Amino acid sequence: MANSFGTIFRITTFGESHGVGIGVILDGCPAGVPLEASAIQAALDRRRPGQSALTTPRQEADRVQVQSGVFEGLTTGTPISLFIANADQRSDDYAHIAGAYRPSHADYTYDAKYGRRDHRGGGRSSARETAARVAAGAVAAALLAHFGIEVKAYVSAVGEVEVGKSYEELDLSLIDSNPVRCPDPEAAARMEARIRAAQAAHDTVGGVVTGVATGLPPGLGEPVFDKLPAVLGHALLSINAVKGFEFGSGFEGTKLPGSRHNDEFYTDETGRVRTRTNHSGGSQGGISNGQDVYFRVAFKPVATLLQPQQTINQAGEAVTLAGRGRHDACVLPRAVPIVEAMTQLVLADLLLRARANRL
Amino acid sequence: MANSFGTIFRITTFGESHGVGIGVILDGCPAGVPLEASAIQAALDRRRPGQSALTTPRQEADRVQVQSGVFEGLTTGTPISLFIANADQRSDDYAHIAGAYRPSHADYTYDAKYGRRDHRGGGRSSARETAARVAAGAVAAALLAHFGIEVKAYVSAVGEVEVGKSYEELDLSLIDSNPVRCPDPEAAARMEARIRAAQAAHDTVGGVVTGVATGLPPGLGEPVFDKLPAVLGHALLSINAVKGFEFGSGFEGTKLPGSRHNDEFYTDETGRVRTRTNHSGGSQGGISNGQDVYFRVAFKPVATLLQPQQTINQAGEAVTLAGRGRHDACVLPRAVPIVEAMTQLVLADLLLRARANRL
Amino acid sequence: MANSFGTIFRITTFGESHGVGIGVILDGCPAGVPLEASAIQAALDRRRPGQSALTTPRQEADRVQVQSGVFEGLTTGTPISLFIANADQRSDDYAHIAGAYRPSHADYTYDAKYGRRDHRGGGRSSARETAARVAAGAVAAALLAHFGIEVKAYVSAVGEVEVGKSYEELDLSLIDSNPVRCPDPEAAARMEARIRAAQAAHDTVGGVVTGVATGLPPGLGEPVFDKLPAVLGHALLSINAVKGFEFGSGFEGTKLPGSRHNDEFYTDETGRVRTRTNHSGGSQGGISNGQDVYFRVAFKPVATLLQPQQTINQAGEAVTLAGRGRHDACVLPRAVPIVEAMTQLVLADLLLRARANRL
Amino acid sequence: MANSFGTIFRITTFGESHGVGIGVILDGCPAGVPLEASAIQAALDRRRPGQSALTTPRQEADRVQVQSGVFEGLTTGTPISLFIANADQRSDDYAHIAGAYRPSHADYTYDAKYGRRDHRGGGRSSARETAARVAAGAVAAALLAHFGIEVKAYVSAVGEVEVGKSYEELDLSLIDSNPVRCPDPEAAARMEARIRAAQAAHDTVGGVVTGVATGLPPGLGEPVFDKLPAVLGHALLSINAVKGFEFGSGFEGTKLPGSRHNDEFYTDETGRVRTRTNHSGGSQGGISNGQDVYFRVAFKPVATLLQPQQTINQAGEAVTLAGRGRHDACVLPRAVPIVEAMTQLVLADLLLRARANRL
């Protein structure tokens, strides 16, 4: 229960890390959206392991198969099934955790909830599940593109290393110009060094991803419980390792007086309603106001360490555990396409939901 | 659409600020929960305007009527309807905004979305709607109490004034000992001064509410999209004026190395599985692990100012607007019961959902 | 759980027969629909008790109060709350059933499900709940009217007395010309006699309501599980006392060969696609094809009898029970507006859902 | 939208007749249910084409692959993905319908709804989609078996040929003893002759399937909109070609007086509450009462005829069309496992939903 997300544009993901494969069914995509498998594959390639020296050396091709819902290059309005076969699993790497609970992993809580779990590679709790989200996000992106809406994300902090500029001061076309996916080359170099230091110490490091959506019309977001930031927060907080979400002025904004925080309205030369500042982050009363939507997402450091840790096994006995296998020291670069995908899925859904607002 | 929240324990709220009244229908509460109207009223009294010199002088009794779903002091399993009649509206206070868009309010976005709005008192976008949530939260609290689960929230920052202690270092029984609802008397005094300064300046101030849930069994939270923090974040980000949510180590935790962030498991003397630290905030893989769930919620400064602001009217023309009426300079003290209510609603729902996990 | 119906145009009903009142929250109605309380009241007046000698003499004014969601005569897009206070309850009439299970009533199953029940007047299981549906149906009708869609229902059988004509052979403007709500005056007279005979025998009688929806555009109905007839069947089978639903050719159509059952397509003089026959009942593949949607709904005889019956009490002991109070001998005339309302609610929802089909 | 069914035990199906394959994701199955692929395959084998001389000679192996959600022979509580690759498609058989609308098929309505369609083999509107339902139904059956609930269905009428006995008078172990799936051998022989006559005439024939569920505890079914018969009716009316649903006494029951229709309660020798008759069909007030649930489902004659028919093409021009390919003259025998599957899915869901009723 709860492997689905979305109200009209709705996805359901399935699959375990070391089973036959993983996938997603997307129900509710309108008919007539141009959709190429290559666009979905390109999104997956940005998330897949082994794409740079900064990520896990685990090689997974993550080839997507479009199984339904597309005919002659256009969506048909029927469910779109996207399947990614698993490969290169080394389940033996996980034999040592079959009976032990990795610290800050989901091993214990899955056992506590279900009474059993598929321990191989983390099973369903593996971040591998997010590949299915990225695939679905590419379909959402195709729909959004039709309406001129674009979503971009980038790494704005790795550990204590921060970009120090707002998204408006950066050239977002540079995001993929370095393996960190930070559009500030100088900061990217420092972040890369920080990740290499973690790798060298057999340790891990967290960070922050910043996301921006542009081109939204006013009117997206459903009062009162499905406000745009509420649904977006839900989506992003459902990503593995995420610990926080803030939009617009966020936590820092709580320190401003209202007289400085308020965004003054004006009408621009084209007659469009705009605001002079955008502390609101593009959403007022939970509804988009036509300004950019921007937000920050906190990722904790990766829990799997290549160093010994104290924990317990299923019998409750103390054991020592050391991560084996091939793991990321920092998930941030690979988290960028996941943040984009979840944002795209949220906006596609809110876009379709907004159609019911008026006669 | 989206005036409902929850999957099994599900609420639907309705009503405008200056209409007949507001209310909530709660569907899915199990039969047999002892429920007194006085408990609901007590929760509402903590939220209502006019309760202290720090809040709006607007007096609203906010008397709740239990209309259905309770028989002889116990819930019956049928929908519980809670209604709060409106009173003391001074709609004239709002005549000046009928055609103007208040900065950082929902006036413009409601018009953009629906083509019209009930402008009186903010209509549906008014924070008055949260009274219905607080009423429903009291029912959730009654259910949770049966299972030994308790939720508390308090003001941990007003503007730049912060408590500076973790929830574990505070005596949470002191939350209601001062009008700020901060359990640290010394910090509370500084916060009160900060709010009075804002009032004096005809300005407003934001802040942070910290929440804690204790007594949760392991197993609450539904992978992969309805992880406990994801649903909780959704709930809290749907509250008016909220700009951010973080749980456990949150944004600060991104700066720790994994070796310090991980929570080591051990078995305590009673045989219960515990962790030595709790950076996870009581949730691993999105499922409760039996430790305390704690989190922080950012509230922006109140948008209604008793000073002139530049904005536009419906015709797009520049106008000057100054707030009239009776408004809070800081919503934080009154936000505490709302944060508690949304948390209670989330936990009640996840508790019932978890029943489907096993044979 | 499950006191809501609909996906986008969604209602939630609440209230017990002898509590404070009953009501409905309608979420998802588009903004801008002209809505007068008098139209809702008119629908309720067709359902209310005491309207003719054929129905229960119980007098209930069933005055509706519009509590939210309407401003200056138009819907605002926010939840519409409709409340009907209870009056003229004689709970004493039900004291005798507090501990006994009326045959073919919901007394036993509510106790079995919830462990308790509000026995007064049948509590939540009372057909009084359908007044809330009728009120909501009137809002749906206002929306449908904007798109030229109209729904009518009438009594086509009372016990073994049948109309014997198809809906196309009848003048549906005559439905309200007699207390039975049968548009065939001759059949109506025989039906009225049949109901009076049941009354005289202290017995009850069932029957059939036929419904017709005209003016539907092609394209309503969502494959594969929310086909138009599937959702309509769900709605109508949720009405108290309903035992069957068939649409188009129905059960009789199973006896036709395919060569006679198929509906031949042609293009009429205006260029519109039509079918020469309509065994399909306006739905093919679960999607409206632009022809009339028509269907039949079976109502069992009323279970409350004014004669002694054998049954058991909560302790499982045999007891004799005789209905007291003021009950209908035949619900069919009052069921007509309920069938119309549920059909209107289904079509309004499918109409809004269909907007997501295409770019 | 609407390719999902169920609330807690929830399926989502996907796939077109002539695409890569079809499948289903089942979310919400509790952990710990013993599940063998062979049980799913056995259910599919009862539905697959080519199983007897009475069905289409089209040969499809319909081999199911269990892709996720099962580990070491038990369900894990995570989504169960079942995939069936397509084979033996002869898309050329359908080239003639690419631009033409087959009478009483979904060709026209899909085009009207979506603006395009995958015409090959009927695409998504093909009854092939029901194979996915049957696969999921086998999982539901495994869950129900744990609670002693069993579902059986059989053909009770083919055209005008009827069984003439109630389900209680038949030996349901004989259902699969003949290719018609009618447990009355004498009636089965007449039905078989009726189907062969239709085949010989290049025509088709409809009929009725009767279903029975035994072993239900009291308490399943959610008032007021998700009454057991309402959800069951929804499920069964969503099957291709279904035109009607009735349960218990159904349409015939409308002719009985209440004094004969009511089901008298008594306590049997084991202390269990029972009814002496069962006109209610095991449901009172929409909640199971512990008696058998039984119902009838009407299937129209197959629309694809191997004889010429008049219709129009996409341009609205009159054309003559004759079915080619390999089609059933009567779907009833193959509909039996589909009716069983949908019933199993409904009961599994209501069983899990009922867990939220009480403390």
From TrEMBL, chains A, B, C, D:
Matching Gene3D superfamilies: Chorismate synthase AroC
Chain positions recorded as FMN binding sites: R124, S125, S126, N240, A241, G285, K300, P301, V302, A303, T304, R326
Pfam families listed in its UniProt record: Chorismate_synt (PF01264)
E.C. no: 4.2.3.5
Cofactors: FMNH2
Binding site for NADP(+): R47
NADP listed as a keyword: yes
Free-text cofactor note: Reduced FMN (FMNH(2)).
Acetylation as UniProt keyword: no
Keywords: Amino-acid biosynthesis, Aromatic amino acid biosynthesis, FAD, Flavoprotein, FMN, Lyase, NADP
MF (Gene Ontology): chorismate synthase activity; FMN binding
Pathway this chain belongs to: Metabolic intermediate biosynthesis; chorismate biosynthesis; chorismate from D-erythrose 4-phosphate and phosphoenolpyruvate: step 7/7
GO BP, sorted A to Z: amino acid biosynthetic process; aromatic amino acid family biosynthetic process; chorismate biosynthetic process
A cellular component term, taken from the record's GO annotations: cytosol
Source domain of life: Bacteria
Reactions catalysed: 5-O-(1-carboxyvinyl)-3-phosphoshikimate = chorismate + phosphate
PANTHER family: CHORISMATE SYNTHASE (PTHR21085:SF0)
NCBIfam families: aroC, PRK05382.1
Function of the molecule: This reaction introduces a second double bond into the aromatic ring system.
Family from the record: Belongs to the chorismate synthase family.
Subunit and interaction comment: Homotetramer.
Protein name: Chorismate synthase
Encoding gene, per UniProt annotation: aroC
